Amino acid sequence: MLPISTAVTPPPSAAAHWIEEVAPERPIRPGARRWYVARLKPRAEERATAILDANGIHVFLPRLRRIRGRNARLLTEPLFRGYAFVYLDPESDELLIARCSPGVLYLLGRGEPTTVPDSLVEAIRLRTEAENFERGEVGFRPGERVQIMTEPLRHVEAIFDRALSASGRARVLIQLLGRLVPLEVNLRQLNGI
Which of 83, 94, 119 shows the shortest CA–CA distance to 33? Predict the structure, then answer.
């Protein structure tokens, strides 16, 4: 019986040569991460981004606060329904993880995923933050056109002035006899136009 070391193990120089041919070392490039756009399953943005985040992939899902529905609920909705930005290194396993994550349909691009400039993603982030800050917890910005949804002023257009209390009172301005008249209403009575 031959010793194990001489029967199977190639000489050190041949092993080093084989490793260099089959798996050449790739230098780690600083800043290799880029932004890409992931197409997500409809109405599954939150679930898909949570899974990507749990897998160590940085995800940016721009959201806006909006008033929706008959009950005038304040909702946070994705700015781009069905899309999210993912920040990953295409040379690593992150690309495969992102493509195969539940809730992700594909990464945008023809053949290879197309990168998105960092400046564009940052501009979208700043814009959504500013918009949400202006709207605050109320969901309307001062000066925004709204519609009153309850009687006796049902379907009358107004201009949102400001929130008055945490309980949901707000001041709007309505056009009456050629001038703007302040009116206090409940936020649930308002709908965005």
Answer: 94
